[in-house]
């Protein structure tokens, strides 16, 4: 028993010693490794990719689909009903302004025009007749005035002669009272006196008659002048009727309003054409489009509307004409948004000298709304930390191998690049990509993206 107890004591001491030695060894090893791990953490650098800001701002552009429309187009309808007597064009025909395209036969319009022209001729003859009559009555009036002067002269002569006979009779009566002459002589003088009185009275009547004739001549002049004015008015009415008849006849002629091409033809010669006013179904005879000038229709979204103005540069790429870029400028804009789509209509005029453009062609239109700030810088949008607010943002820059958070002021951001107005210089190294977490002061190993591109 004493031997067994001694063995147990020895084993217990040995086990205790072994455990104590292991704990001491672990403690020493942990103390030896701790500085090494701490040193490793402090010396390991994060790999980052950097880029230098580019000099110059960002153009604000609006890229939208656009459709080509002719600068002018028209459906030409019939104003009057009748048979299509003539049609000199067909689909695809090139036409000139004023060229006759079709003619509708309406014989009654031609007859009406001839009748109205005859009325004008008749009115002209009436005017000439009235003018001749006026000349005649004016001559009569002048003759009547001359007759008045002659009658008044004769009256004056007759009055003088009557006074002479009156005095002569008075002397003869005195002589008869003195019994110097016979009564028979006095009777003869009385006859001469009465004859002179009668002649004077007749002369007065002649004067009155001449004056009445002159008044009648003046009345005939007034009447003839009224007839002349009526004839002239009749002529004006007849000429207006001619103009109206000519207009109605012109309605039978369908002419081109401008140089262009025929795009639709819906009738053939011999067909009965109903006027657009009398038919509930309005069908044009032909359609014509101007082809030397087109307009591109673009619907600009609400966010770009404030920056659109006439004269902005436009670049148009037509899907049917790959590789061709057509340049132009905004010619006109609606100045009002469509409340249903929140877009504004903008038009760009495009010349078509080679005739390659067609109505309905589709493509992409790039509107240059802003040329950007010349003295600003440009960096990739991916370099921004978080979301910009009120034109302010943050980026990470590398200086002396360490990260620095830098405040910047930004302008246009098109989703690919962002315009930097202040906060950076062209020599700053801006982080755009990293393989670890970056904080203020983090040690990094930087590689220039542009240098990599150049090496490739």
Automatic annotation (TrEMBL):
Multidrug resistance protein MdtA-like barrel-sandwich hybrid domain sequence ranges: 73-279
Q: Which InterPro entries match?
A: Beta-barrel_RND_2, MdtA-like_BSH, RND_pump_MFP, YknX-like_C
Keyword annotations of the record: Coiled coil
Pfam families tied to this protein? Beta-barrel_RND_2, BSH_RND, YknX_C
The CusB-like beta-barrel domain covers 298-367
List where this protein forms a coiled coil: 207-234
Asked whether the UniProt record includes Coiled coil among its keywords, one would answer yes
Task: List, for all copies, the residue spans of the domain called YknX-like C-terminal permuted SH3-like.
Answer: 377-445
Gene Ontology MF term list: efflux transmembrane transporter activity
This entry carries the following GO cellular component terms, namely: efflux pump complex
The record's comment on protein family reads:
Belongs to the membrane fusion protein (MFP) (TC 8.A.1) family.
Q: What is this protein called?
A: Efflux RND transporter periplasmic adaptor subunit
User: What species was this sequence derived from?
Assistant: Telmatocola sphagniphila
Q: What is the lineage of its organism?
A: Bacteria, Pseudomonadati, Planctomycetota, Planctomycetia, Gemmatales
């Amino acid at each position: 028993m004493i031997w067994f107890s001694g063995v147990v004591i020895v084993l217990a001491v040995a086990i205790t010693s072994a455990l104590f030695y292991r704990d001491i060894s672990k403690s020493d090893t942990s103390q030896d490794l701790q500085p090494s791990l701490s040193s490793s953490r402090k010396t390991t650098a994060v790999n980052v990719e950097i880029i230098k800001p580019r000099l110059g701002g960002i153009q604000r552009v609006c890229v939208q689909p656009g459709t080509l429309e002719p600068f002018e187009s028209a459906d030409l309808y019939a104003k009057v009903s009748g048979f299509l007597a003539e049609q000199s064009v067909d689909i695809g025909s090139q036409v000139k302004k004023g060229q006759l395209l079709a003619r509708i036969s309406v014989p009654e319009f031609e007859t009406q025009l001839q009748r109205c022209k005859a009325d004008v001729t008749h009115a002209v003859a009436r005017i000439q007749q009235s003018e001749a009559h006026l000349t005649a009555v004016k001559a009569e009036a002048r003759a009547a005035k001359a007759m008045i002067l002659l009658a008044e002269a004769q009256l004056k002569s007759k009055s003088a002669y009557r006074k002479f006979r009156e005095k002569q009779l008075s002397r003869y009566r005195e002589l008869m009272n003195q019994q110097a002459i016979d009564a028979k002589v006095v009777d003869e003088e009385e006859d001469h006196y009465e004859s002179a009185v009668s002649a004077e009275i007749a002369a007065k009547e002649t004067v009155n008659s001449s004056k009445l004739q002159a008044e009648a001549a003046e009345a005939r002049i007034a009447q003839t002048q009224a007839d002349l004015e009526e004839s002239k008015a009749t002529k004006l009415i007849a000429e207006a009727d001619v103009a109206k008849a000519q207009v109605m006849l012109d309605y039978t002629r369908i002419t081109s309003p401008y140089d262009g091409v025929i795009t639709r033809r819906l009738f053939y010669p011999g067909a009965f054409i109903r006027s657009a006013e009398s038919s509930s179904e309005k069908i044009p005879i032909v359609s014509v489009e101007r082809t030397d000038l087109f307009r591109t229709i673009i619907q600009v979204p609400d966010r770009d509307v404030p920056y659109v103005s006439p004269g902005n540069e436009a670049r148009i790429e037509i899907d049917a004409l790959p590789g061709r870029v057509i340049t132009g400028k905004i010619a006109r804009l609606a100045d009002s948004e469509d409340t249903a789509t929140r877009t504004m209509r903008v038009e760009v005029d495009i010349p078509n000298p080679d005739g390659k453009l067609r109505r309905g062609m589709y493509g992409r239109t790039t509107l240059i709304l802003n040329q950007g700030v010349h003295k600003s810088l440009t960096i990739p949008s991916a370099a921004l930390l978080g979301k910009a607010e009120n034109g302010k943002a943050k980026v990470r820059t590398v200086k002396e191998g360490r990260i620095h958070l830098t405040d910047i002021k930004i302008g246009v951001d098109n989703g690919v690049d962002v315009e930097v107005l202040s906060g950076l210089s062209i020599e700053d190294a801006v982080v755009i990509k990293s393989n670890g977490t970056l904080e203020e002061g983090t040690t990094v190993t930087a590689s220039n993206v542009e240098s990599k591109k150049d090496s490739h």
